[in-house]
Write a structure and sequence with these properties.
Elements: H1 7-17, E1 29-33, E2 36-39, E3 44-47, H2 50-53, H3 62-74, H4 85-96, E4 102-106, H5 109-123, E5 133-137, H6 146-150, H7 155-158, E6 168-171, H8 176-182, E7 187-192, H9 208-218, E8 222-226, E9 250-253, E10 264-268, H10 270-273, H11 289-302, H12 305-328, E11 333-339, E12 342-347, H13 351-360, E13 363-364, E14 366-368, E15 372-375, H14 383-400
Parallel strand pairs: 3-13, 5-6, 5-7, 7-8, 8-9
Antiparallel strand pairs: 1-2, 2-3, 4-10, 9-10, 11-12, 12-15, 14-15
Helix pairs in contact: 3-11, 4-11, 12-14
The structure holds pyridoxal-5'-phosphate (PLP).
């Protein structure tokens, strides 16, 4: 093993050798416990990001760590030439706790959404091959592959890559009339996030998701939900569609599902599952036993009424304190919106320097959209930790208000 490097050396190596696709903070994370991460110099930070809505059970969760270690000690990869127990048990747990009857495992949110797009485009292939169009949302974010990039209106992700996939119609999020007008005999599906994530944590208007469900039914089109960020308890229900008394035809998961292990999944019904028959779809690392062993622990904890009640309770508390901050700093905070432990705070301030100042004061935060502070702490966070982080935010807002 090479001797340990200092933080400065690690950052220097990263800046030299990693592609510059991100803008990381000057921070080297070495370990974590609960809702805190510790840097390479032993400094502790309260984490309101959770690896971008990933580390659902927080850090150093003994059962999660134990399951990963135990499975890694047995075998780390099997390929899909054989079955393994963690993946079939996780598929069972996901089906038993959702509308779904079939699961396809992959490695990321983009790959799970690619699976949705392939499912939709192939669903009518034998009966109505002209029917392959997919309606998507202008501020959506579904991933960085060429397919998922085609399913958004956001130019900042799409520009410069030549022509993307044909057959996508972009409509404004929340506008049911525009959605109605976009349907045609070619419409195979609608793909959407039940709450916009990267687009700025935007909840749709009351009744919108139900209207979209009805439109899909009227046109025999599929409703595809991207629950990569909203799924696995983030909004206080196991899946965000459960707030609305509707069910999608297929759904993509990733982020929180593995508690930090890379995993994605597409969930759908028995009948639709048949669309992606052998050999039209697959993924070498899908059904990975270590990732799915982690997912099983996540599901065991998150898919319980007590855990989800905790998320809802903490979410309501978070919202009440954010609304107080909005009242106090009305010049800097323009809007507060979200559900569960998934909140956006639209701000009028220099987000880059605010993020760095938060770091200097021991708080990890992150912005999505242009000016929206995204709060997505580990789902296990307690009220005292929420208060600690919110107090740091309040102190910074006071400084920025001068
Ligand atoms: C709603 C949504 N879908 C898809 C993705 C892409 O997931 P991944 O980065 O794992 O490919 C993201 C990532 O932020 C997301 O928020």
């Amino acid at each position: 093993m090479p001797s340990p490097l200092s933080s400065a050396e690690i950052i220097q190596l990263g800046e030299k050798y990693l592609m510059q696709t991100y803008r990381p903070l000057p921070l080297v994370i070495e370990s974590g416990q609960g809702a805190r991460v510790i840097d390479a110099d032993g400094r502790s930070y309260l984490d309101f990001v959770a690896g971008i809505a990933v580390c659902s059970l927080g850090y150093g969760h003994a059962e999660l760590v134990g399951a990963i270690q135990e499975q890694a000690g047995k075998i780390v990869h099997t390929s899909n030439q054989a079955f393994n127990e963690p993946s079939v048990r996780l598929a069972e747990a996901l089906c038993q706790n959702s509308f779904a009857e079939r699961v396809f495992f992959c490695n990321s949110g983009a790959e799970a959404n690619e699976s949705l797009l392939k499912l939709a485009r192939r669903a009518f292939f034998k009966t109505d091959p002209e029917r392959y169009e997919i309606i998507c949302m202008d501020k959506a974010f579904h991933g960085r592959t060429l397919g998922t990039m085609s399913a958004t209106g956001q130019a900042k992700y799409k520009d410069g890559f030549g022509s993307l996939l044909p057959g996508f119609k972009v409509v404004p999020y929340g506008d049911v009339d525009a959605m109605r007008a976009a349907f045609s005999s070619k419409t195979a599906a609608v793909i959407m996030e039940p709450i916009l994530g990267e687009g700025g944590i935007v909840k749709p208007p009351q009744g919108y998701l139900q209207d979209v469900r009805h439109l899909c039914d009227e046109h025999s089109a599929l409703l595809l939900f991207d629950e990569v960020q909203t799924g696995i308890g983030r909004t206080g229900k196991l899946f965000a569609y459960m707030h609305e008394n509707i069910i999608p035809d297929a759904m993509a998961l990733a982020k929180g599902l593995g508690g930090g292990m890379p995993i994605g999944a597409m969930l759908t019904t028995d009948k639709l599952g048949e669309v992606l028959e052998f050999p039209v779809h697959g993924s070498t690392f899908g059904c990975n036993p270590v990732a799915t062993a982690a997912g099983l622990v996540v599901m065991k904890h998150v898919a319980t009424p007590a855990f989800l009640a905790h998320v809802s309770k903490m979410g309501l508390y978070l919202e009440s304190r954010l609304l107080e901050l909005k009242k106090q700093f009305s010049r800097l905070i323009l809007d507060v919106r979200g559900l569960g432990l998934f909140y956006g705070v639209e701000c009028a301030l220099d987000t880059n320097s605010f993020r760095k100042d938060a770091l200097a004061n021991g708080l990890l935060i992150n912005f999505c959209g242009q000016q929206v502070l995204r709060l997505s702490p580990p789902l296990v966070i307690d009220q005292a930790s929420l208060d600690e982080g919110l107090d740091i935010l309040a102190m910074l807002l006071l400084q920025y208000n001068k």
